[in-house]
Amino acid sequence: MNDVYQCYAASAFGMEGLVAGELKRTGAGNVSAENGGVCFSASAQELFRLNLLMHFTDRLFIVLYRGPCRSFEQLFTLVQEIDWPSFFSGDESIDVTCKCTRSVLMSPRDCQSITKKSIIEKLRRKTGRQVFPETGSSLPVHLSIRNDEAMIMLNTSGKALSRRGYRTWNGEAPLRETLAAALVELSGWRPGQPLHDPCCGTGTILAEAALMAAGKAPGSDRPFAMESFSCFRKLSLEQIRQTVLSQADISRVSGISGSDIDPEALELARRHMRQAGLGDGTVSLECIPLQELKLEAENGVFICNPPYGERLGDQKQCRALYHDLFLLKGRHPGWRLCAISSDPAFERSFGKKADKKRRLYNGRLECVYYIYN
Ligand SMILES: C[S@@+](CC[C@H](N)C(=O)[O-])C[C@H]1O[C@@H](n2cnc3c(N)ncnc32)[C@H](O)[C@@H]1O
């Protein structure tokens, strides 16, 4: 199977540019960003490598159809046009998910069942088989209908790529791994420079930075749906994984540290570092309130996800903490400080306008990433 597929990298709003940049750096073809995702082309082997390597995208798909869709009849017909037998060996379980946004067809459940009915109908006609026991591995099909345009796709990742596998205990308000990686990338920090998260919680920002410094692919320790697709059985995907894994070197991690006021969160952070294969002590973690924090290095980058007053603590306390971040920056004049918050009063509470701002989403929460040089 040396086919080159039309593909789609789903991403959170605000992160499309980062996803497109990473796709270009890793050699994907025809990269073009749009709202909520990035189109590109790749072979199955390249897609597998991208699943292992990509830091910021949510899922990678093969696009089987893209075009207008305004009725159930039209949906049934266009699903029929797809060459399902080339992806289906006979006993996979066909798992259809669906999301409808601003469209005439607004019932995901109905769209899901029509899509599945149409796939089975096509398989019956093409293979002559009447019964599909669906006892085999999953063939995850995703249908997205947005502004009356349907995209019918094969989900090659399976569960979201943010689930690297190292974070098994979540603490109170953890950050999705893809967003944590984006915060590190957008901060301008580069491996080798000191990096400190002064309210590190369960350590997601630190783990992502350390994985980048080690050159360890974020997907190294997790499976992907496409590994069990029968159509890709003959490809040496395991060999691709081993080649990517062999490029990691944990001894390259240096100068990454974190602190938090909560000892339990720090315990979880230690556990997550171990589970990310970073070992004890690679990232140093200390229980210390940021009001008392004083680091020795003359320059570096603070990256943090302080409480927003929405999910943790109350607003007044959080706003006082934002001013404490300003004082922390004052004690470390050679350090850049980068913080994400959904609180519109962040800059006012901090006490200074940011040098750079970027809108990002933490789940459904609209946030701004503030960068102070
Ligand atoms: C939104 S959580 C950070 C979550 C983290 N990014 C993660 O992935 O788990 C905010 C953190 O700020 C910490 N915090 C609150 N006040 C603090 C203070 N005065 N000094 C240091 N840390 C503080 C909390 O204990 C909490 O872990």
Which key phrases capture this entry?
single chain, 373 residues, alpha/beta, VC0802-like, Rossmann fold, 2 domains, 7-stranded mixed beta sheet, 14 strands, elongated, binds S-adenosylmethionine
Topology readout:
Blueprint: E1 4-10, H1 16-25, E2 29-34, E3 37-43, H2 44-53, E4 59-68, H3 72-80, E5 93-101, H4 108-127, E6 138-146, E7 149-155, H5 177-186, E8 195-197, H6 204-214, H7 237-245, E9 256-260, H8 263-275, E10 284-287, E11 300-304, H9 315-331, E12 335-341, H10 346-350, E13 356-362, E14 365-372
Parallel strand pairs: 5-6, 8-9, 8-11, 9-10, 11-12
Antiparallel strand pairs: 1-3, 1-4, 2-3, 4-7, 6-7, 12-14, 13-14
Helix pairs in contact: 2-7, 3-4, 5-6
Bound molecules: S-adenosylmethionine.
Plain-language structure description:
This protein is α/β, with parallel strands linked by helices and 373 residues long. The protein folds into two domains: 4-155, 2-Layer Sandwich (VC0802-like), CATH 3.30.2130; 177-217 and 255-372, Rossmann fold. Helices cover 31% and strands 25% of the residues. It has ten helices and 14 strands. The chain has helices at 16-25, 44-53, 72-80, 108-127, 177-186, 204-214, 237-245, 263-275, 315-331, 346-350, and strands at 4-10, 29-34, 37-43, 59-68, 93-101, 138-146, 149-155, 195-197, 256-260, 284-287, 300-304, 335-341, 356-362, 365-372. It has a seven-stranded mixed beta sheet with strand order 2-3-1-4-7-6-5. Strand 9, helix 8 (263-275) and strand 10 (284-287) form a beta-alpha-beta unit. Helix 5 crosses helix 6 (204-214). It is elongated, with a radius of gyration of 23 Å. S-adenosylmethionine binds next to helix 6. S-adenosylmethionine binds at residues 171, 173-175, 198-199, 201-202, 204-205, 260-262, 265, 289-291, 305-307, 312, 321.
